[in-house]
Description:
By secondary structure, this protein is mainly β. The chain is built from no helices and ten strands. The strands form three sheets. It has a four-stranded antiparallel beta sheet with strand order 2-1-5-6, with no helix packed on it. It has a four-stranded antiparallel beta sheet with strand order 3-10-7-4, with no helix packed on it. A two-stranded antiparallel ribbon has the order 8-9.
Amino acid sequence: MYALVEIKGKQYKAEKGAVLTVDKVDSQNGDAVEFDRVLLVADGEKTTVGAPYVAGVKVKAVVEDAFRDKKVKVLKFKRRKGYLRQKGHRQQYTKLKVEDIIGA
């Protein structure tokens, strides 16, 4: 059984026991979180598609870790003009472990 769930505007495939890397969620390590924006639930032979969400279904997960990704460097450069601009960015992510799909 799996569910397609929308977390912070992005879609993820959630299965029991799966670890998802999502954009930063404002919770501490060990906190339980629930997501009710479930787009699809598949159970082997039966598939339920929401319009836009499946009513009464939630994905329960536990926050495992919060971390930052590798630095991405952004470079603007114009040759022969003495123009060079550099910026760096590190995206923040959260690891979620899916505990259960409730109501499916």
